[in-house]
Design brief:
It is a single chain. The chain has 117 residues and is mainly α. The chain has helices spanning 3-19, 28-44, 51-55, 59-82, 87-101, 104-107. Helix 1 packs across helix 4.
Length: 117
Amino acid sequence: MDEDALEILKRKLRTFTAARDWEQFHSPKNLAMALIAETGELVEHFQWLSERQSEELPRDKLDEIELELADILIYLVRLADKLNIDLVEATHKKLKLNDEKYPADLVHGSAKKYSDY
């Protein structure tokens, strides 16, 4: 998602929230709790599946997962907006840190944590 798309989404979510007078409920704490709840709903779709099953989901299951991912993005964008965090900038910053912590030549093909090598 490019920066413009994220900005458009942020504005749409602000408008949607304001039209329903939900801003009063969108504290950072509440948004963080809603985010984790939606993430839990996403995980339920994968619970008890084998690795292979999780990679070969039927279309109806993918449609349900798509909506859960949308809910997660909505709460993530709202939370970042409330805290004045630029998600694109923060992601670039985190990728830079991860690049330093996980140099490709040291971790290629390994799932070890940076503290384990």
